[in-house]
Design brief:
Layout lengths: L10 H17 L2 H37 L2 E6 L5 H12 L4 E7 L1 H12 L2 H4 L10 E6 L4 H12 L4 E6 L1 H43 L1 H9 L4 H45 L13 H29 L3
Length: 311
Amino acid sequence: MTSTFSAPSNRLQQHVVDLRQAWQGMLTRPIATLSTLLAIATTLLVPILLLTISSGLTQALDPYSNSPRLTAYLIDTSDEAMMGVVSKRLLAREDIGVVEVVPKESAFAEFANISGFGDLLGELESNPLPDALIISALQLDFTQLERLAVELGAFPEIDLVQLDAQWIRRLQGFTQLIKKFGLLIGLAALLGFFLVIVNTTKLIVQQSEDEIRVLKLIGAPDTFILRPFLYSGLAYGFFVAVLAFILQFAIIAAFGSLIDEFLLKYNASLPAQVDFSLGFTWLLFLLLASSFTGLLAAGVSAYQEILKLEP
């Protein structure tokens, strides 16, 4: 595990040698190395999945959060002329930006397509859905939106006004809960990772006691002896993160469509496919956190063990 002592002028070359030694040391114990990597990667997989889902939902909800909408359902006797009159009346208001007209026929066809009960719904004698107006408000404050919904509900042509921001707020709250839960589990997983690398490094140092004593006899400083173990911990952290990302991508690829289907049933206005992928910032942060944890754990454990050994 340890490397040959060399002069300071060859420090860069020595770092390369130490890194190679750490890599070869991991390869000499393939089963133990792979078992350790899989165990830690599986532990890190849970918080990474939670953060991935939270990130995907947040990106999917952002357009709706920045463009709050209300849905006004007209009375049963409404027709195309009434929808036009009400739409013009709404557009004349300063707090409304866009009004989308949704005839009952279009709403019925879309519902039949999404629900999968097209044949069954086709047997109905009449269309039970009302004409609707989807209203995009210019104000973002939820209290003001509620006040606007009450005002629109007083229109004689409007039977019911539904504030779409309500389901957005509920889903956003659930998303934030997933994110916080993922971060807490991630911290616990990193602590477990730290302890595993501490024990693994301790065993490796104990197996290299004879080499370490020889290096001390020829005058090698403790920091020089420590370096290969630091690279070993760094390698563990790096490959654990990479393996966890690979597992995460595989799971999202396998089950991402099920999540999309659930969200589509939750609200049909959500995008058909949500991008469940961590951004570059999150990937870099998790990679650095895992690598640093491995480096720190190996350094703490190896240094304590090296100090105990006498030449």
